[in-house]
């Protein structure tokens, strides 16, 4: 499967740029495969795809380019940060990324917040390692760009991530994980 950028001057037509170099996405797609997930595409840009087949005689000619596919135009939120701490709760907040041109028309209806307990994290190690194991949903219909996470353990490290629900579009990708955040000591 090959992917190629398109002419950015006319998004409605998304014409193939004749000088663009087609990039090989995979050369080992199973014959019975009806779909394929392509990683690493830039947000908000159109892409076209074309296929070639291979048999014992070699590669077939390139197929016709597909219609343009647009990657999700909305970027994920910034990583959450803690603004208030107790021994059993954290108040976290996040924002839209500065590069997200679509945040001027805010179609984000709500957010999903997830937490990961960092059981093996130690901030005093020479090079602290973050082992992210499992993510648990804290709140899946958070309307504001902040959330109070309760029922946490004292002196425990946590990591958070968040994603936006976009009206008519669905979920964005998750934000990058937050920096490790520790709850306070029980008094």
TrEMBL record:
Protein name, UniProt field: Fibronectin type-III domain-containing protein
Source taxonomy: Eukaryota, Sar, Stramenopiles, Oomycota, Saprolegniomycetes
């Amino acid at each position: 499967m090959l992917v190629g950028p398109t002419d950015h001057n006319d998004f409605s037509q998304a014409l193939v740029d004749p000088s663009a170099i087609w990039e090989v996405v995979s050369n080992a797609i199973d014959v019975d495969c009806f779909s394929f997930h392509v990683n690493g595409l830039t947000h908000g840009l159109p892409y076209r795809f074309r296929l070639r087949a291979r048999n014992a005689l070699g590669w077939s000619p390139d197929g016709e380019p597909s219609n343009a596919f647009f990657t999700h135009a909305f970027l994920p939120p910034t990583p959450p940060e803690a603004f208030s701490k107790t021994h059993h709760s954290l108040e976290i907040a996040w924002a839209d990324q500065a590069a997200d041109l679509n945040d001027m028309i805010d179609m984000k209806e709500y957010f999903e917040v997830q937490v990961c307990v960092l059981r093996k994290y130690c901030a005093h190690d020479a090079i602290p390692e973050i082992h992210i194991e499992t993510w648990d949903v804290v709140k899946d219909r958070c309307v504001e760009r902040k959330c109070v996470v309760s029922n946490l353990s004292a002196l425990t490290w946590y990591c958070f991530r968040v994603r936006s629900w976009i009206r008519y579009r669905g979920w964005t990708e998750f934000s990058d994980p937050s920096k490790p955040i520790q709850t306070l000591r029980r008094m």
